Amino acid sequence: MTRTAIVTGASRGLGRALTTALAAAGWTVVVDGRTLSISLPGVIAVPGDVTDSWHRARLVDTALGTGRLDLLVNNAGILGPSPRPPLADYALTALREVFEVNVFAPLALTQLALPSLRSFEGAVVNISSDAAVEAYEGWGGYGAAKAAVEQASNVLAAEEPKLRVWWVDPGDLRTQMHAEAFPGEDISDRPLPSSVAPAFLDLVTGRPPSGRVRL
Asked: Which residues form a coiled coil (predicted)?
C-alpha cells in the first residue's frame, strides 16, 4: 500500500519542496496551508490554519481516509515580527502567537496523529532551526519557540521508542520567511528549498535513529 504523509505549511518554500519530493517518490501527501494552491498527482490539499483544532482533525481524518498514516511533517511556522525585535521590546502578544503556531499547533497535531503513526511504526519530522541552539541577536522569540520544539521532540522520541522522531534543521534557504527575517536584504545567495529535498528523502526512507538532523 502507498505510504501517506501529512505536510503542514505546503503553500510555498520548504513545505512545498518536501511535498513535491514525497509525491515524486510515490507517497500520498496530505497538505495544508492558509493560502494553498497546489495540484500534483498524489497530493491532497486541505486548506486551513494549523492552529484551528477542527482543521487539524480534518487533516488527520483525510490522511486516515487513504488507509494509513506513516509520516507527519510539522513544517508550518511563522517568524514573528519583522524587523525582528530584541527581547527587551518583544510584545508578549506577538510572542504568544509565535509559540501558538510553532509549538502548540504541531504538538496538538502530533497528538492526533500518534495512534496511526504507532500502528505503522511511522515517523514525525519537526522542522527546527539553528536559532534553536545558537544565540543570535533579534532571534529570541523564534529561537525560543524552536528550542521548545527541539526539546519536545527529544522527549517524544524517548516516550515513543517504536517511532522515529527527527528535529530537522534545513539551514538557511531562499524562502519568504527568510526574506522577512532580513527585510530589504538580498538573499538570492541562499539555496532553494528544493536543494535539501534529496537529503530529506534519504532521512525518511533510511530511518536513522531519532535525533537532531542537519540537512
From this structure: none
Q: Give me the helices (H) in the chain, please.
A: 13-24, 53-64, 92-99, 105-119, 140-159, 176-181, 197-206
DSSP state of 171: -
Active site residues: 142
User: Which three cell numbers mark 208?
Assistant: 536513522
The alpha carbon of residue 61 and the mean position of all alpha carbons in its chain are separated, in whole angstroms, by 19
- How far CA 179 is from CA of 68, 82, 132, in Å, comes to 36, 10, 19
- Higher per-residue confidence, 157 vs 177: 157
User: Would you state the cell numbers that stand for residue 46, as one nine-digit string?
Assistant: 486541505
Instruction: Assess whether pLDDT exceeds 80 at residue 1.
Output: no
CB 19 within 8 A of CB 40: yes
Number of domains in the chain: 1
Reading the block at residue 205, the C-alpha cell is 526512507
Digit-coded pLDDT (tens) for 60-88: 999 999 999 999 999 999 999 999 999 99
